[in-house]
Amino acid sequence: MQKVIGGFLLGGVAVVALSFMHPIKQVTGTNIMSANQPAKKEQIQWLTLKEAEAVLKDNGKPVLIDLYTDWCGWCKVMDKKTYSHPEVIKYINEHFIPVKLNAETREDLTWLGKHYAYQSSYRVNTYALYLTQGELSFPTTVIMPSKGEAPQAIAGYLEPKEMEIILHYFGEGHYGNQSFQQFHQQFSSKWK
User: Fold this and answer.
1) Residue 15: pLDDT above 90?
2) Is the overall model pTM greater than 0.90, yes or no?
3) Is 192 within the bounds of a domain?
4) In sequence order, what are the beta bridge partners of 27?
5) Are 72 and 161 within one domain?
């Protein structure tokens, strides 16, 4: 009896071991996917500054820039909590031209015909100084409402519910037509 149980357990272990070596395939709809692969998560379609400028030529959407640094802890929290929130992702992808920009990039940048370079005395690219009007803080969410218009910098970490009102204000064309205070008073948040 013990030999039968031992053989059964050994056979079960072999089946489990083989299943890790050869993932089980599942059929979902018309797609075949591996059982140990998570479904692809929706993400913000971040562009480089150069790509955004090319898109801007044919598109009237405002530009949203996530201005960050590699050492910024709150920038990483914002990536993990805010920029991975499903409603934030969907809204930004539909209503903005999104750009992710490291403020400390040493790469020369060009935006609307103006050139920006790394400035060692500030340890940032001068484009970051332009976007924040010299008031550096990380993370900073920058909205450029329309081509050639001054950047609107919102410094600090934003929760999804705080980001919601800002996105709707700029994404639906309220900026320039209504003060933020007026918009805020009538706005009803839906995101958590």
Assistant:
1) no
2) no
3) no
4) 32
5) yes
